[in-house]
Amino acid sequence: MSRKAKPSASRDVQLTGDKTLARQVAAAREAFNTALDARDMPAIADVLSEEAMLVPGDEAQLITGRQAQLDAWEAVFASMPDIAYVRAPVRIEISEDGLLAAETGRWRGSWSMDGMSIRYSGRYFAKWRHDGTAWRIEAETFVTMKRAGGAD
Predict the structure, then answer these.
(1) Rounded to the nearest 5°, which phi and psi values hold at 44?
(2) Where are the domains of the chain?
(3) 132 Cβ neighbours under 8 A, 6+ residues apart
(4) What is the pLDDT of residues 112-138, one digit of tens each?
(5) What 3-state DSSP class applies to 28?
(6) Residue from 91, 93, 122 nearest 109 by CA
(7) What are the pLDDT digits (tens) for 76-101?
(8) Which residues are registered as beta bridge partners of 147?
(9) How far apart, in whole angstroms, are the C-alpha atoms of residue 50 and residue 52?
(10) pLDDT digit string (tens) for 32-75?
(11) Is the pTM of this model over 0.85?
(12) What angle do CA 15, 34, 117 make, to 5 degrees?
């Protein structure tokens, strides 16, 4: 597998509110990126809340629930073995009570299809909640800002 995007969410991220908690959210994001890269379904599941919602960046349908997201990822990994997605946080803000976090950043994805190299990128927002054990994603919304593709 030759995936071009590498997991890295640990660049210059603006942390607001409780910095220790914001670093925990950044570490959870890094773990999620690593899990996506490794196709590690249990690790992907571990970062998602049971009711996690994902709003895709294009014309794809809303995905509601951890299992629905896992099913979607398995289908994507099976049909596009070289697919790579990375979310790179720009800002992580922790709520006053320390139970919620808002993450904004940039995402990118790349894959091959029908002899073409496809690259999408854009902005995203993630809502995180600490469930007493760990930070989990409750919702992610993606906006596709750029699409590129052409023959290999």
Answers:
(1) -65, -45
(2) 14-151
(3) none
(4) 988 889 999 999 999 999 999 999 999
(5) helix
(6) 122
(7) 999 999 999 999 999 999 999 999 99
(8) 120
(9) 6
(10) 999 999 999 999 999 999 999 999 988 789 999 999 999 999 99
(11) yes
(12) 105
Are 88 and 8 in contact by the 8 Å Cβ rule? The answer is: yes
d(CA 115, CA 126): 33
Write a three-state SS string for 138-151. EEEEEEEEEEEEEE
Identify whether the C-beta of residue 124 lies closer than 8 Å to the C-beta of residue 107.
yes
Q: Are 128 and 136 in contact (CB under 8 A)?
A: yes
What's the DSSP call for residue 80?
A: -
Tell me which amino acid residue 53 is: M
Q: Give 143's pLDDT tier (boundaries 50, 70, 90).
A: very high
**What topology does CATH give the domain 14-151?**
Nuclear Transport Factor 2; Chain: A, (3.10.450)
| Pair 101, 116: CB distance under 8 Å | no
Find out whether 14 and 90 touch, Cβ atoms under 8 Å.
Answer: yes
Planar angle of CA 38, 140, 85, nearest 5 degrees: 30
CA distances from 49 to 26, 32, 45, 91, 127 (A): 16, 13, 8, 21, 11
